Each structure stands twice: as C-alpha cells, then as structure tokens.
Amino acid sequence: MKAQELLQQAQKTCKQRGARLTNAREQVFMLMAESEQAIGAYDLLEKLQAIDPGAKPATVYRALDFLSKQGFVHKIESINAFVLCHHFSDCSHPVQLLICDTCGHVEEIQSGHLDLAMRAMADASGFTINHQIVEAHGTCQTCQ
Predict the structure, then answer these.
(1) 68 to 54, 115, 139: CA distances (angstroms)
(2) Which end of the chain is more exposed for a tag (fewer CB within 10 A), N or C?
(3) Position 91 pLDDT exceeds 70
(4) CA–CA separation, 112 vs 117, rounded Å?
(5) Number of domains within the chain
(6) Residues making up the binding site
(7) Cβ atoms within 10 Å, residue 49
C-alpha cells in the first residue's frame, strides 16, 4: 500500500476512534510510511526538520507515542527504532518482527500458532499477556 493510501486509512481510523491526527503526527506518519526500513526518533527528527525547521525532539516523541498507541507503528526495542504497521485496523494484534542485521529490513509477520503457544505458556504460569512484540534477528533472503 502506498504512503498516501496508508495516511488516508490512518485518518479514517482516527476519525472512527475520535483521535486527532495533528499536522505533526501526520508528518511523522508520512516520513515513516516513506521509509523502507525501521527508523530511529532522531533520524525522524532530522527528516522532519527538513519540512519544519522548528521541530524539536519532543515533537517526534509525542507523535511516535500517539502513533504507537493507535497501533500505527511498532517500537523495535532491541534497536530502539520504529516501523510502520501496514495493517493497523487491529491495533491489538500480536506483533512478530523479522529484523535483518545486515541491511536493517524489518518484516512484520503474523503467526497465530506462535501467539497461541505464547498465550498457552503464559496461562500455565498464571500470566496474562496484554501486549506482545516478538523480535527475531537474523539475515533476510536478499542478504543471504
């Protein structure tokens, strides 16, 4: 899906939820939608400052926080970066990411089997999963 189509979908989703997609949030969303790989907050800030020279780190962090809460982006903890979710109509879905350590490509996959296995193990331990992000590092097909 193209960046503009994703933005339209995000706008529609925000409207349905009563959430406000401000100009700054929209700009950060578009920068992420146009990015081929995961991107860090300061790299986003640098790109945003090319559009809005007055942008500050707090602008980016507030936008990322909003986008994350809406399920539009996922934070990749292991590399302290963010990636756009291309199927954010379900913002509570389990997230499974394949991260190439060579080129930085990130692919989001969805495995119901992995989710069920994790939930079964959590249940057996008396643990309730509220949010799930699984990160797997390795080498993508292109870099092999």
Answers:
(1) 23, 20, 26
(2) C
(3) no
(4) 9
(5) 2
(6) 100, 103, 140, 143
(7) 14
Task: State both tokens at 2.
Answer: 């193209």
pLDDT in tens, 31-77: 999 988 899 999 999 999 999 999 999 999 999 999 999 989 999 99
Using pLDDT thresholds of 50, 70 and 90, give the confidence band for residue 135.
very high
Looking at the domain assignment, is residue 143 inside a domain?
no
Domain hosting 103: range is: 95-138
Specify the amino acid at residue 98: L
Residues annotated in the binding site for Zn(2+), as ranges? Answer: 100, 103, 140, 143
Give me the phi and psi of 22, to 5 degrees please: -70, 170
Q: In 10 A of CB 35, how many CB atoms?
A: 18
Burial of 48 (0-12, 13-18, 19+ CB in 10 A): buried
